[in-house]
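Quick log. Single chain, no ligands specified.
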Amino acid sequence: MSTISAPEPIRPLGRDGLALWQSTAVLLGAFNLDLLQITCELIDERNQLRLSVLRGADPSERRALRALDRLLVDNLQSLAQLAEQASLDASTEETSPVDDLAAARAARRAAAKDRRRA
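-> predicted structure:
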């Protein structure tokens, strides 16, 4: 049984951003990897800024942290919707026009065969 591995990030990521990348990139496939990259970078930036805030940084850093939090939540919601859509797309079987024609042809042949028997 083979496992599908995540593609490499577009740009280097920190530990937490890389963890999100590796757990999510496979779900998104080749689509929306830019949004995922930005979100992973936001996680890394947020963690660094949070450490600075916890060390007693000035109030502007606390406001910046909250702004990053809002942006991060928005991006994570968008990624969740995209992953859900990708999952739905993968679970629905779409047929090509060639498949539809072949199925219609087989149905006509079966109907003609039934008429000959009758």
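The two ends are 50 Å apart (CA to CA).
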